């Protein structure tokens, strides 16, 4: 069946329903000679006799009838695919989204509430992944959209088949026990923490890369002691004196933990929407991307980093 022209399948299906070459020709505004030639070409493509004489008319052979039955399913699938790929079609289908917890919470959930009302034919499957995990799934075509992040000190390097759109940015600082912060201290001096244990993300290397870059610029090698996949747990460890680590400045923290801004260099996290190249025109994906992206395409500040009630990464 490789290389079968679907237009010829439509003619065969029409013959099975209308019963004569003349009726098929009239239905498709063709000549009977053209219909006959196209069906002969289809028989050659399938290497099967599809029609046989029936008095002064023709009829489908048993193989022709079976192919006509298959044509119903084949043509329906082709029509569905064409509609699905039409950028002007009404969005419908299942969109597979994966990403880091805060990105899903901040960027995606408000959109889903709207889509549930305005586009009920679009269904969204959500999974939590760190950027490297999401990139791999996108490349393997196991995700349609990923919400990822990178630090300016540790830029991501996704596969060339992927393209990324910036969503929002937020500054990060150094999380330390509040008891260690002296009055009047405006920013964190990383050199003061050269002998401390450091806490980094357990599932993504960007956090550790940013810490190592900061330390290298300050002239020391950080002692990485803990790898934690939860900002809440990271705060617990800081509070108990087990180390220091990076936290978003705009995120509310528990009593006893202070997030100190950093300068020279600053640490900024930017969130991205990432898709496979050439896929962004698929109607369900475009629907979400248009609502995710700022109008001018530039990163926008995230004014408040919500504190989740459950543990999560990012």
Automatic annotation (TrEMBL):
Pfam families: HTH_1, LysR_substrate. PROSITE patterns: HTH_LYSR. The keyword Signal applies. Keywords: Activator, DNA-binding, Signal, Transcription, Transcription regulation. One of its GO terms (cellular component) is protein-DNA complex. GO terms for molecular function: DNA binding; DNA-binding transcription factor activity. Residues 1-25 form the signal peptide. Residues 4-61 form the HTH lysR-type domain. PANTHER family: LYSR SUBSTRATE-BINDING, TRANSCRIPTIONAL DUAL REGULATOR HCAR-RELATED. Transmembrane segments: none annotated. This is HTH lysR-type domain-containing protein. It comes from Mycolicibacterium smegmatis (strain ATCC 700084 / mc(2)155) (Mycobacterium smegmatis). Belongs to the LysR transcriptional regulatory family.
């Amino acid at each position: 069946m490789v290389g079968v022209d679907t237009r010829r399948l439509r003619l065969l299906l029409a013959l099975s329903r209308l019963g004569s070459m003349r009726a098929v020709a009239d239905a498709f505004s063709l000549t009977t000679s053209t219909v006959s030639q196209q069906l002969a070409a289809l028989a050659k493509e399938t290497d099967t006799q599809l029609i046989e004489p029936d008095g002064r008319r023709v009829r489908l052979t048993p193989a022709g009838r079976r192919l006509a039955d298959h044509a119903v399913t084949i043509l329906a699938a082709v029509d569905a695919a064409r509609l699905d790929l039409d950028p002007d079609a009404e969005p419908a289908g299942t969109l597979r989204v994966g990403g880091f917890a805060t990105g899903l919470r901040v960027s995606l959930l408000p959109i889903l509430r709207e889509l549930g009302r305005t586009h009920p034919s679009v269904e969204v499957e959500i999974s939590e992944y760190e950027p490297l995990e999401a990139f791999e799934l996108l490349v393997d075509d196991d995700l349609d959209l990923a919400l990822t992040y990178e630090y300016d000190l540790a830029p991501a390097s996704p596969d060339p088949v992927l393209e990324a759109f910036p969503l929002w940015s937020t500054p990060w600082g150094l999380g330390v026990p509040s008891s260690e912060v002296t009055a009047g201290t405006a920013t964190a001096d990383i050199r003061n923490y050269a002998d401390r244990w450091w806490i980094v993300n357990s599932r993504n290397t960007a956090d550790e890369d940013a810490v190592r870059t900061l330390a290298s610029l300050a002239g020391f090698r950080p002692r990485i002691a803990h790898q934690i996949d939860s900002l809440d747990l990271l705060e617990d460890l800081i509070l108990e004196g087990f180390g220091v680590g990076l936290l978003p400045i705009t995120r509310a923290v528990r009593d006893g933990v202070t997030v100190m801004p950093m300068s020279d260099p600053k640490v900024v996290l930017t969130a991205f929407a990432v898709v496979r190249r050439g896929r962004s025109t698929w109607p369900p994906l475009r629907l979400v991307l248009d609502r995710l992206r700022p109008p001018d395409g530039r990163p926008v500040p995230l004014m408040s980093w919500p504190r989740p009630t459950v543990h999560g990464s990012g």
